[in-house]
Design goal:
The complex is a heterodimer of chains A (229) and B (411).
Chain A (H helix, E strand, L loop, with lengths): L3 E12 L2 E13 L4 E5 L6 H8 L7 E6 L2 E2 L5 H11 E4 L11 H10 L6 H14 L15 H13 L5 E5 L7 H18 L2 E6 L2 H6 L2 E6 L2 E7 L2
Helix pairs in contact in A: 3-4, 3-5, 5-6
Chain B lengths: L1 H9 L4 H41 L2 E5 H5 L14 H8 L4 E15 L4 E9 L1 H7 L6 E4 L8 E5 H6 L7 E7 L5 E12 L4 H6 E5 H8 L7 E6 L2 H14 L4 E5 H4 L1 H39 L1 H9 L4 H37 L1 E2 L18 E2 L5 H27 L3 H5 L3
Parallel strand pairs in B: 3-8, 5-7
Antiparallel strand pairs in B: 1-9, 1-10, 2-3, 2-6, 2-9, 4-7, 5-8, 6-7, 11-12
Helix pairs in contact in B: 1-13, 2-11, 2-13, 2-14, 11-14, 13-14
The chains are: A alpha/beta (229), B alpha+beta (411).
Chain lengths: 229, 411
Amino acid sequence: MALVKLVGLKKTYQQGKIAVPALRGIDMEIESGEFTTIFGPSGSGKTTLLNMIGCLDKSTAGEIIFDGHSINNLNNKELAEIRRHNLGFIFQSYNLIPVLTAFENVEFAIRLIDKHSKKERREKVMSLLEEVGLGDLASRRPNELSGGQKQRVAVARALIKEPKLVLADEPTANLDSETSQEVLEIMQKMNKELNTTFIFSTHDPQVMEYANRLIEIKDGMISREQRRD
Amino acid sequence: MFLFRMALKNLNRHRRRTFITALIIAFAILIYILTEGLMLGMTEMSFSNIINLESGHLQVANQNYWDERKELPLKNLIEPSEEIERKIEALSGLQAYTKRLNFSVNLNNGIDELPVKGVGINPEQDGAVFELQKHLVEGRMPQAESSEIIMGAKLAELMDFELGDYAVMLIRTPDKTFNTIDGEIVGLFNTPHPSLNENNVFIPLTTAQSRLDIDNQITNYVLRMESQDSGLTAAEELDRNLEAPLAAYSWKDTAESLVTMIEMQTIETQVILAIILTLAAVGIINTIILAALERMEELGMMKALGLHEREIVYIFMGEAAGIGFIGGVMGIILGVVGLFIFNYYGLDISAFTGGGDVTYGFPISGTVYAGWELSSFIFVFVYGMVVSILASFFPAFWAARKDPVKAIYHR
């Protein structure tokens, strides 16, 4: 069974009196453990698609099935519950909480699911921070970290609750190529070790090299798809 | 709990803004504490003045006289008796008692005439119940059986009297016959009770009784008890023991209109507090809206992490509670300092009354010292916190309802 299944997904934004179609009918299936990249020119609908899959936005037409359940008719509270337990997000601009340390930023996500003791939580967070190479910087605040380090904290935050799916919206856009590579390698490692499913949206050819599935979007529709072994 | 801790950490983001918002709340609390402290000081001074200079802790009077006592009638008087005095002496906590006779006088200086209240006192016993002697600024208390009188220095000044002068007191006996007393002024007093200073003339009781032709009748017995509270309980006890039409009246019964006025003033103070804190609430609303706008992407991220709207509302309300707490603590500290100054140096209320004795209905004059009550501090602190939290609810709810996509991409 596919982890994510999209059937005839459409999204139209209303800008004043003009209806602007962002997605024009997407059919797609994502299996567990895939490392998928969605690419395409600006305005093609990548981010909109990611937001739909991430239960952040609602479709105008079509259906989204997540882990075997349709999410079309869920209310905001139910969608938040899905995000809380099953999804991880990585943003282009990191979006870390500036008043919390790296440790606390990562811990924040796991505290929301409240199934670990304080000790377990601490061990888990520290172990993941070490995995992403930030074991020594756990007590630093975001303004004391470089862009690459911040994005690694964001990756750790997305992975700490062991979500079924991680969505990354242009995660390397603000990083230099060397740092991008480091971050991508960490994500690839997590994908292999934890079998976490990743979906990226990107322009970056470097990201595409790491993906085992490429989906190109143009004008709100899938124009090309490629699988790699 | 961790959301609340994060809310408190958020207060560190813009310390100056947090401080200024908290300062507005602190200011509101300071104003309340000072107003309340001043009111309390005025109330305590008023009751103290009434007890020490006007009514004692309790009085015994004829019920019919009591209802008309402000008219100073010479009817429904009391015939002093051993039976009444035995009942008075049986009261526990009694320190002293005396007899008094209140009557109407027209004070004449040969040119002008002024209606005042004459008070017949027993010079030997009166000092054990009242503090009049303590406030003599010139001369001495009148001697028993004499025609010596004392009056307020202000009244003397108004009527152009000096110590040693004779004042003609025009009185009417119960059968409406006019009579006069040529009272030699042997003492002038200046009490903190303005109406006493301006409106009362004291004369030995026996002299007043004989000129008023009322034998040994009096208008009331006045009792001094151990404390204000024992005055209240003794009044109830004595009232049960006395036979009608006699009744016992506590100092609170005498100060009935003052008690009503204080209740009104308390409401007024609370309305002032509500108005100032409403203004402070605008500051809180402004701070929360600014915080939400600045942290829009962060809010979007929180929603992406799966935070529910109510949890985001908690965070902002936690911040507001933190600001309210800081403002409350600052306000209490400032209030304590302010009250200490008020209490140490006092406040000369004549500065507000242009040197006159207009005291907004309070029987006080001179310097007022602020009082304080722990319950007021607790009340205003909790009130400030509640207003802060409530003020944050709508902006917090507004922020929490933001569409996560719009928030993340700050659209």
